[in-house]
Amino acid sequence: MSDVTIWHNPRCGTSRKVLDLLRAEGIEPAIVFYLQTPPDRATLAGVIARAGLSVREAIRTKEAAYRERGLGDPALDDAAVLDAMLADPVLIERPFVTTPRGARLCRPAERVREIL
């Protein structure tokens, strides 16, 4: 079992690039298809915190669901934003990679090198 995990969406070019970078380094990560198998609340909040991000930095603002749910409202607290991400995992920014050296939201893809 790999000690490197990627939350992957194969339809995303950046996610595919990060997976390719990992494999080029000789790493075959555990792949979590987070749209089909979303994380639980504690895991999502933990990865976001471990990556040094705020909850708002981990949400995909360009998704229709972001606008439809009014998630740009600054009055919404982190719990409400997390609830939205858990209810609709397409709102989780990607790809997140975790290693023993930390977690990163790998945008741009080369950020993955910070934790290898």
Kindly describe this structure.
- This protein has 116 residues and is an alpha+beta fold.
- The protein has a single domain, classed as Glutaredoxin (3-Layer(aba) Sandwich), CATH 3.40.30.10.
- 32% of the residues lie in helices and 12% in strands.
- It has a four-stranded mixed β-sheet, covered by helices on one side.
- It is globular and about 45 Å long.
Structure in a nutshell:
It is an enzyme of class 1 (oxidoreductase). Pfam families: ArsC. The protein contains 4 helices and 4 strands; from the N terminus they run βαβαααββ.
Main β-sheet, spatial strand arrangement: 2-1-3-4
Ends distance:
17 Å
The strand count comes to 4
The CATH top-level class label: Alpha Beta
Q: Give the CATH topology.
A: Glutaredoxin
Work out the helix count.
4
Please state roughly what percent of the residues sit in beta strands, choosing from under 5%, 5-15%, 15-25%, 25-35%, 35-45% or over 45%: 5-15%
User: In which range does the helix fraction lie?
Assistant: 25-40%
CATH homologous superfamily - what is it? Answer: Glutaredoxin
**Can you give the mean pLDDT?**
96
Number of domains: 1
Q: Major beta sheet, specifics?
A: 4 strands, mixed
CATH architecture: 3-Layer(aba) Sandwich
Query: Which class do the helix and strand fractions yield?
Result: alpha+beta
Q: What is the element string, with H for helices and E for strands?
A: EHEHHHEE
Shape: globular
Low-confidence stretches: none
Radius of gyration: 14 Å
